[in-house]
Each structure stands twice: as structure tokens, then as C-alpha cells.
Specification:
about 200 residues; alpha/beta; TIM Barrel; binds ligand LCLJCK34; binds 4-methyl-5-hydroxyethylthiazole phosphate; binds magnesium ion; thiamine-phosphate diphosphorylase activity; magnesium; thiamine biosynthesis; transferase
């Protein structure tokens, strides 16, 4: 089963992002998602490899966003794909049955399609407003997350504007867990922020 807290790396990658990953893992993060949006493929692969090594040492799962080729090359545990990435069924065919495949959904119809295509889990959102990613549609709120969670039998990971204070709302909506960028990467103390999120998940 996929972990309940997905710590997503800052899209810029680099040393600061790696430091945040180290801190998150020291705080107990069970899943790290490598999400890079800049740099050459070689730089992105090198970053993903470093994160995989850190995750292995900590016993955490590592998922690469967008790119199944980088995920396989880095020996990551899984790949997360959205609407502009390779389709879930293609990622599944390329990566095989033991690779974790996640897909992005914001409504029950899309969610059911992704599960039928072979998704192991769904990233669902944006749950709340966020300034981390431009061009997102309106937040779906806990009710939107609940509609998706009720429609599928795979774990739902809520994303977008997530904080420890909001975790109980999402868990009550049926989310298995949450994915965060700024709540950990933007925190003054990313290890403490990770512990706070995990405590909120454990309590709800
Ligand atoms: C857990 C999780 N859910 C959703 C997303 C968003 O992925 P995607 O739609 O591919 O958008 P980008 O992250 O590529 O901007 C995610 N990364 N993780
Ligand atoms: C990549 C992505 N997809 C939907 S919301 C989001 C960004 C979430 O970032 P934050 O946790 O800082 O709100
Ligand atoms: Mg993507």
C-alpha cells in the first residue's frame, strides 16, 4: 500500500531541494515524489537518482513525476502522471506490474478511467488554492475529494494547499493521504513540518 504522506520536491530541484528531502526523510516521510520542471534530462536523472538513494536508505518509497523513463532509469518505485504526460496504460505497459503508477484526477469519471487504465493510486486536486503551480482549475474542496474517493477503490492522495490543519478534513472525505510541496519544502524546519503532517495523519 502506498504511504499516506507524499513529500513532493520543489520543482527547481538542486541542492536546496535535496536538503529538504533529507530533512523530510529524517522526519519520517514514507513517500517522496521527485517533481522537477527545469534542467536537462541528465540533470533531472541525476537528481532523481540522488533522491532514490536517500529514500532507499530511509526505507521510503520514491515516485517520479511526469516521466516513466526517468523513473525507470533512476530505479524509482513508481511514476505519477497527469493529463499532459504519457497515459497511465502506457506507463503501466512500459514499467510493468510491480511499478507503482499514479494518475491525477479531479472528478469521479476521470478517476474511474484512470483506475480502469491501471492506476494504483490517484492524486486528487487541487483540494485547496495553492500558489505552487500556475494555471490550475478551481479547487474542488473536501467535497470534491470525497466524490472521487467514493467512486474508486484505490488510495486517494489529496493535493493542493494541504497543511497539517487541513488533514482531518481530507481524511474525513475519504482520502488515504496527502501530497504536499510548500508545507514541507517551504517550511523553516522541513523535518518538523513532516512530523506535524504525519501526526495529523495518524490522528485522523
Ligand atoms: C500525488 C500527486 N497528485 C497530483 C499531482 C499533479 O500531477 P500532474 O497533474 O502531472 O501535474 P504536475 O505535478 O506535473 O504539475 C502530483 N504531482 N502528485
Ligand atoms: C502539483 C500540484 N497539482 C495540484 S496542486 C499542486 C501543487 C501543490 O503544492 P502545495 O502543496 O504547495 O499547495
Ligand atoms: Mg505531470
Amino acid at each position: 500500500m502506498i504511504g499516506r504522506l507524499h513529500v513532493v520536491t520543489d520543482a527547481a530541484g538542486g541542492r536546496a531541494a535535496l536538503d529538504a528531502v533529507r530533512a523530510a526523510l529524517s522526519g519520517g516521510a514514507p513517500v517522496v515524489q521527485v517533481r522537477t520542471k527545469t534542467g536537462s534530462d541528465r540533470e533531472r536523472l541525476a537528481f532523481a537518482r540522488e533522491v532514490v538513494v536517500l529514500c532507499r536508505a530511509a526505507g521510503a518509497q520514491c515516485i517520479v513525476n511526469d516521466r516513466v523513463d526517468l523513473a525507470l532509469a533512476a530505479r524509482a518505485d513508481g511514476t505519477h502522471v497527469g493529463a499532459d504526460d504519457l497515459p497511465v496504460e502506457v506507463v503501466r505497459r512500459i514499467a510493468g506490474p510491480s511499478h507503482l503508477v499514479g494518475g491525477t484526477a479531479r472528478d469521479p469519471e476521470r478517476a474511474a478511467e484512470l483506475v480502469a487504465a491501471g492506476a494504483d493510486y490517484l492524486g486528487v486536486g487541487p483540494a485547496f488554492a495553492t500558489s505552487t503551480k500556475d494555471g490550475l482549475p478551481d479547487p474542488i474542496g473536501p467535497d470534491g475529494v470525497a466524490a472521487v474517493a467514493a467512486a474508486v477503490r484505490v488510495p486517494v492522495i489529496a493535493i493542493g494547499g494541504l497543511t497539517a490543519a487541513r488533514v482531518p478534513l481530507l481524511r474525513a472525505a475519504g482520502a488515504h493521504g496527502v501530497a504536499v510541496v510548500s508545507a514541507v519544502s517551504g517550511a523553516a524546519d522541513p523535518a518538523a513540518a513532516t512530523r506535524e503532517l504525519l501526526a495529523a495523519l495518524d490522528a485522523s
